[in-house]
Design goal:
It is a single-pass membrane protein. This protein is mainly α and about 600 residues long. About 75% of the residues lie in helices and about 5% in strands.
């Protein structure tokens, strides 16, 4: 009979219980000596039982050890068998995995080859489309070249037209020469009239001789005394009549010359307009290379059309190396276009949507720039409390010039001068600075609103609620004699000082001084002139004459002679006003 481990455990439990029983018995033997015999018998029996149990346990242990050894050997054999089968299975799996990996690698290589073929075909199609686009671009460039050639031919035709216009002007000059000859004829008629006057004088002399005797008899004067009296009266009458006729003829000739001068100026402006426009209405934008011109033009010219439509500026792309031209009479639009084009060229992305985005950004930047220039000007002039709309309009003057002088800087100078003069006169200096700063406000929008800059400035100042003194200064800074307040006179004086300052406008200091000295020298060269002063930056010369040598009638002739000498001997811009001043004083002393 084979013992299992459970039987062995039960046997051990029985042995332990037997031992316990023995112990209990021994304890009871100690307590009771009466049952010693029974205890001895029980001990023997327990020893026998213990021996039997020990033998059985030894036997069961040996059997369990042998069974455990057998089980261990079987387990080892089974484990060895499992290890061998596992190694075999792993080897088989490794071989199948290698086969699967090889199959997947072949499939991946095939898939990559297929993708490479597809990518090659896509790139070939893209290159073909790009080649076609380049061919289309080349065709558009060829069309543009043909258009430019057509424009060149048109410009040549315009040149021929200008040549014909020049010939017409030459014929017009001949007509003017004929008119000058007619004027000479009129002068000859005047000479004839003078001769008739001389004849009349001779007749009067004859009559004078006839009445000489009667005068001597009636007046009791000698012939020489009567002759001197008549001649003095006749000379005075003839001098007055001569001055009146010369004045009338001068007025008539001045009107005719003014009309002819207007025609000549219009023709000269027409002939010189191209050079003036090129100097004042064109900005040059550099580009990194001529290849950028094609990107600026875009496919079929869509980029350049979008740019011109959004900015209102003509974009000229010609043979100028590494540069394009922006043409517009509006300097603000031209500046916005320049900023946008420079950003597009720097970015490199040029297409209609990007152009629209960049132009809008440039317009916002321009608004900020204009407002900052207006704030800086107001701060520099010491003017506070201007409304934002006025500051914006003031900043627009940064892009306005007059005879090369920046109008915004000119306004700041006028503000300082007006404030200083107002303070010296005990007036409100802050109000004077405000009037001087805003006196040319209308020039900020005179290209967009009809009317003179004075009318526009008055309207704007009234709309923004400026004080009446400021409005009066704006309205009358060119005619201060009609102003209602002293601020208009101060603004006019400061305006003249700023404009006439040497170097403020396109004229060197040496030429300015020489022109003033020559004006005064010409005026002083005439007899009867006491003193002469060139004022208003050489636009007027005031001649003080001696009243005992120059009469009122001769003053008209003297002014004409001085103006004629200035026209012949000097070169000057605009016109020069000659003012002859004759003052008569009667002085008597009461004793």
């Amino acid at each position: 009979m084979a013992f299992t481990p459970l039987d062995l455990i039960l046997t051990l439990i029985v042995i332990v219980l037997a031992a316990v029983v023995v112990l209990l018995l021994q304890r009871s033997n100690r307590q009771t000596e009466v049952n010693k015999s029974e205890l001895e018998a029980a001990r023997r029996e327990a020893q026998q039982t213990l021996e039997a149990a020990r033998r059985q346990a030894q036997t069961a242990l040996e059997q369990a050890q042998s069974q455990a050894q057998a089980l261990l050997e079987a387990a080892r054999a089974e484990a060895q068998s499992l290890r061998q089968s596992a190694q075999t299975e792993v080897q088989n799996l490794r071989q199948s995995a290698q086969a699967e990996l090889e199959r997947l690698r072949q499939q991946g290589e095939e898939r990559l080859r297929q993708q490479l073929r597809e990518e090659r075909e896509r790139l070939q199609a893209s290159l073909q489309a790009e080649r076609e686009a380049l061919l289309s671009e080349r065709a558009s460039l060829q069309a543009e070249r043909e258009r430019l050639q057509a424009d060149l031919q048109a410009s040549r035709a315009e040149r021929e037209e200008l040549k014909r216009e020049t010939e017409r002007l030459a014929r017009r000059g001949e007509q003017l020469d004929a008119r000058a000859a007619k004027l000479d004829e009129q002068e000859e008629k005047l000479d004839a009239l003078e001769k008739a006057l001389e004849a009349r004088q001779a007749e009067l002399a004859q009559r004078e001789r006839q009445i000489d005797l009667k005068l001597q008899e009636v007046a009791g004067m000698s012939r020489e005394e009567a002759q001197n009296l008549l001649l003095s009266r006749l000379d005075a009458e003839l001098e007055e009549e001569k001055a009146l006729r010369v004045k009338a003829n001068l007025e008539r000739i001045r009107l005719e010359v003014k009309r002819e001068a207007q025609k000549l100026l219009a023709q000269a402006a027409q002939r010189q307009a191209s050079e003036t426009a090129a100097a004042l209405a064109v900005s040059v934008v550099p580009i990194p290379s001529d290849a950028m011109k094609g990107r600026i033009i875009g496919r079929e010219g869509r980029n350049i059309r979008t740019f011109e439509a959004l900015t209102g500026v003509d974009l000229i792309i010609d043979d100028t190396p590494e540069a394009v031209l922006l043409s517009s009479f509006n300097p603000m639009r031209r500046e916005i276009a320049r900023m946008a084009l420079e950003q597009l060229v720097a970015d490199g992305r040029i297409h209609p949507s990007r152009i629209e985005e960049v132009v809008e950004k440039a317009k916002n930047e321009m608004k900020t720039f204009i407002y900052e220039r207006g704030e800086e000007a107001a701060l520099e002039a010491g003017v506070v409390g201007l409304k934002p709309g006025l500051v914006q309009l003031l900043g627009r003057l940064h892009f306005r010039s007059s005879y090369g002088q920046n109008v915004l800087k000119h306004s700041v100078q006028v503000a300082h001068l007006t404030g200083i003069m107002a303070a010296e006169l005990g007036l409100d200096a802050a109000l004077g600075r405000r009037a001087g700063l805003l006196h040319d406000l209308g020039k900020s929008v005179d290209r967009e609103i009809e009317g003179t800059h004075v009318e526009i400035g008055v309207t704007l100042a009234t709309r923004f609620g400026e004080p009446k003194e400021v409005i009066d200064a704006i309205a009358h800074h060119h005619d201060p004699e009609n102003g209602e307040t002293l601020y208009s006179v101060l603004a006019a004086a400061a305006d003249a000082i700023s404009a006439a300052r040497p170097g403020a406008r396109r004229e060197s200091l040496e030429e300015y001084i020489q022109r003033l000295e020559q004006l005064e020298r010409i005026a002083l060269s005439f007899p009867g002139v006491d003193n002469a002063f060139a004022v208003q930056a050489g636009r007027e010369v005031r001649v003080i004459v001696k009243p005992d040598r120059i009469s009122d009638a001769k003053a008209v002739l003297l002014a004409r002679e001085i103006a004629g000498r200035i026209e012949r001997d000097m070169n000057y811009p605009g016109q020069v006003q000659v003012t002859v001043v004759r003052e008569s004083r009667a002085v008597e002393y009461a004793k």
